[in-house]
Design goal:
alpha/beta, ornithine cyclodeaminase, domain 1, Rossmann fold, eight-stranded mixed sheet, 18 strands, 26% strand, globular
Length: 321
């Protein structure tokens, strides 16, 4: 048997947002039905970042992603997040593919935000706010614009250059966009936060009734982007309860005793399969706490592998001869 090696450029060539949304929504559905194996993330924590091991299995697809988060890396010319994924045959354990997973990580996280908004945001949502304009903001925008008719985008980033660059990207996509103060950005229909903050950057007084919030940035213990009081006002939906309690947007509030596990309304998978309700009124505030699940990676990697084989993309290597 042969192993397929796929570079970042090859994965980028293969993977579309439409395919990613389908793969991630399917992964959430399987999670909602209890048909996945996904041990908790394993962390190695360092002074300047961390490494995480993320294994998963669903519907005959298996593998593991090894990914870092080092916020200071751009200062030395490296990405904040780098990832490698091994895609295995569950029947034999053979590594069918080894692929760069940076693009997979960005795309599947963006897809998760789009899917959450599909089920939790008001269908007439037109104004979209973005707090944080790093790489993840771009795939969040791409996924949301795939599923919604975006009329206007409001943008805030502590780095003005990053904010202007993201505005230009939105405008090239045919959407009106403008940098604003963070308070003005939060006055929107769908708010996406993608910062690495360890203290709230969005205050409760800025959040309007009926907004849906995709809280993307908090993905490790101690991280948070939202004022805890917002959590108490909102319907909270998570990708996975155990991961969210440990390392999602809610982890700090739970650690302080402000929030309890029973305050979580549902997982996004439970809403997709109809076990729990999504948005129930125009005025309710909804929050999607995205920690990033290994099943998202493996489901997306299965699409990448299939497309690569179909189109003869990648390099064949033989590990075991």
């Amino acid at each position: 048997m042969e192993t397929l090696l796929l570079t970042k450029k090859e994965v980028e060539k293969i993977l579309t947002m439409e395919d990613t949304i389908k793969a991630v929504e399917h992964a959430f559905e399987m999670h909602g039905r209890g048909l996945v194996q996904m041990p908790p993330k394993v962390y190695l924590t360092f002074d300047k970042g961390d490494l995480r091991a993320m294994p998963a299995y669903l519907e005959g697809k298996a593998g593991i992603k090894w990914v870092n988060s080092h916020p200071d890396n751009p200062k030395i010319g490296l990405p904040t997040v780098m990832a490698l994924l091994i895609y295995n045959d569950p029947e034999t354990g053979f590594p069918l593919a080894v692929m760069d997973a940076m693009h997979i990580t960005n795309m599947r996280t963006g897809a998760a935000g789009g899917i959450a908004a599909k089920y939790l945001a008001r269908r007439d949502s037109e104004v979209f706010g973005f707090v944080g304009c790093g790489m993840q903001a771009y795939t969040q925008f791409i996924a949301l614009s795939t599923l919604f008719e975006i009329e206007r985008v409001k943008v805030y980033d502590i780095n003005e250059k990053s904010a202007r660059k993201f505005v230009e990207f939105c405008e090239r996509s045919g959407v009106e966009a403008k940098t604003e103060s963070i308070e003005v950005v939060c006055d929107c229909d769908v708010l996406t936060t993608t910062t690495p903050s360890r203290k709230p950057v969005v205050k409760q007084d800025w959040v309007v009734e009926g907004v849906h919030i995709n809280a993307i940035g908090a993905d490790a213990p101690g991280k948070q982007e939202l004022d805890e009081k917002i959590l108490l006002r909102a319907k909270i939906v998570v990708d996975d309860i155990e991961q969210a309690l440990h390392s999602g947007e809610i982890n700090v509030a739970v650690g302080k005793g402000i929030l309890k596990a029973e305050n979580i309304h549902a997982t996004i998978g439970e809403i997709i399969v109809g076990k729990k309700s999504g948005r129930e009124s125009e005025d309710e505030i909804t929050i999607f706490d995205s920690t990033g699940l290994a099943i998202q990676d493996i489901s997306t990697a299965s699409v990448v592998y299939k497309r690569a084989v179909e189109n003869g993309i990648g390099t064949i290597i033989k590990f075991f001869i």
